[in-house]
């Protein structure tokens, strides 16, 4: 903004190094396509959504919605659907823990121990992403099917009752979330673990650090940027997801995404849908900023 | 890497964020003008019919809703024959997967009196009713639809949202009733059995389409889905809620119940007749039941939206599909209820088995048990849909 304000003055001084002013302008020119893109496809729709969340809830499609600054839409929406909010955050938090337990060792193994298998393993992590999200989730439906091999095995070893099931339970939804977003956690983690200098670990053991201590003092802090980026990339879409709950769950597992979907497409309650979207965004932003503060690395942003 | 520039950019970022927040706030005031109503009239959205000079037509339909050649899936015999006969080039797109989703797709254009690029689109009766209510649909010229006049099934004539049969012409129609997989369950005859039998617990699904599920429940509670009060709706909804709360109903579905019914993950459900016929070809244990209390009759309708400039071409197509010989060929492939009188006689020549199937050519006994859901106004639609969505979990 300030640099732009200088432009007229520099243009007003003909002899004062026109090359410099051009090079000063250059970054902004380079920014232009991206900024225009963001403005048209992000800022403006967001603005419209913000306006919609304050429309008169008594309006309708045929008569239109009047802008009445109806801030009451927010508490009303929250009151009606707070269990879905709680459920969304609980499911994605559990999924995140599971994904960390699987993803960290996996990323470490690929980055440090895989040797010549490294590329193959990376492809194995990324390859499922070549198929559609929907198809992958539908595949889980077959795997967890009531008459499938997995449920049959679990019933035989009495981990499940004779009428027990996996599909259409919270377990299936959390499993789906964990699976579908795992690569978003693994890839950033891999990127920062790959740069880990193994001589540092040698040095730690030379200084009599136990492997656990070396992990705590060397590996973990150095992988922190990847860890933070990964957890955010995992947590944010997982919380807003509605496909897993829709396909693998039942109405009792519906998350906030399902409610927003129904508000916009089925019930045609645009003010409520918009208010719920903003509440979700606000909740996620609050959690992200709290988390970044705690983690103390603003570098990733 | 911690150069002094770092703190500067961070501050820059902060100022930028604050600045754009302020910008947002001001622009928010500007945007604070609400939306205009989506209500239009056909006369107010007039478009010239260019059919005489432009021999073309854009046709939007659901997937697997058109006959295809057994050897070459890209050929559509009845549609190709129409193109050859009329000289009208048809662009056929299978882009309707869900009524609500499709509504979202065309809503902005139709509300703003803009062309959608479509000349014929096929939508379910309640969505057709909504679009007609909003004034988004063009009236057809009856003089150009003699086949429809002569052959449309009586039970699909003079429906509340189109009392004169000139806005929405049925493409196919079908029933919503009960289906069960005989491999895993004994015969089910009533909706109450479906919702209370203990051995079905957790293995039952219902449709997320409110009119089908609630229509059956209204009938099972002794009410008339074609004419009910809010109290009767609540009564039927309470019955549904009990089944959801007790865990009897596993979930609410669209078409995807069919694979689960075939696999046995669910053993009984509220289902559409055409899906069950298709499943029955592979597994004769899967049966469709017309509950004693009655079934729901629905239809998918051909609509010509405002600003379509090929209305006469569309009328020619609609009229063509009401020729019994063409309708029979189509019905032999799609297996829904054929809305064309006389197609049954034609079907005898193609496949006598199908001609005798009451789910494709329903007899009087079955039609007398079928009801069409009441036409709702906008307020009722929102109220009932919200109540229903609360019970089904979203």
UniProtKB/TrEMBL annotation, chain A:
* This protein's UniProt keywords: Cell membrane, Membrane, Transmembrane, Transmembrane helix, Transport
- Matches recorded under PANTHER family: INNER MEMBRANE ABC TRANSPORTER PERMEASE PROTEIN YDCU-RELATED, INNER MEMBRANE ABC TRANSPORTER PERMEASE PROTEIN YDCU-RELATED-RELATED
Q: What is its main location?
A: membrane
The record ties this protein, via InterPro entries, to: MetI-like (IPR000515), MetI-like_sf (IPR035906)
- Where does it reside? Cell membrane
What is the protein name stated in its UniProt record? ABC transporter permease
Q: Which family does it belong to?
A: Belongs to the binding-protein-dependent transport system permease family. CysTW subfamily.
UniProt-listed PROSITE patterns: ABC_TM1
TM ranges: 28-51, 89-108, 120-139, 167-191, 218-238, 274-292
As for membrane topology, the entry says: Multi-pass membrane protein
- Organism of this sequence: Micromonospora solifontis
Residues in ABC transmembrane type-1 domain copies: 85-293
Cite a single Pfam family from the UniProt record.
BPD_transp_1
Which superkingdom?
Bacteria
Automatic annotation (TrEMBL), chain B:
Give the signal peptide as a residue range, or say none if absent: 1-27
Question: Which UniProt keywords are given for this protein, alphabetically ordered?
Answer: Periplasm, Signal, Transport
Main subcellular location of this protein, as a coarse class: periplasm
PROSITE patterns associated with the record: PROKAR_LIPOPROTEIN, TAT
What compartments host this protein? Periplasm
Organism's domain of life? Bacteria
Tell me, what's a Pfam family for it? SBP_bac_8
What name does UniProt use for this protein?
A: Spermidine/putrescine ABC transporter substrate-binding protein
Q: Which organism is it from?
A: Micromonospora solifontis
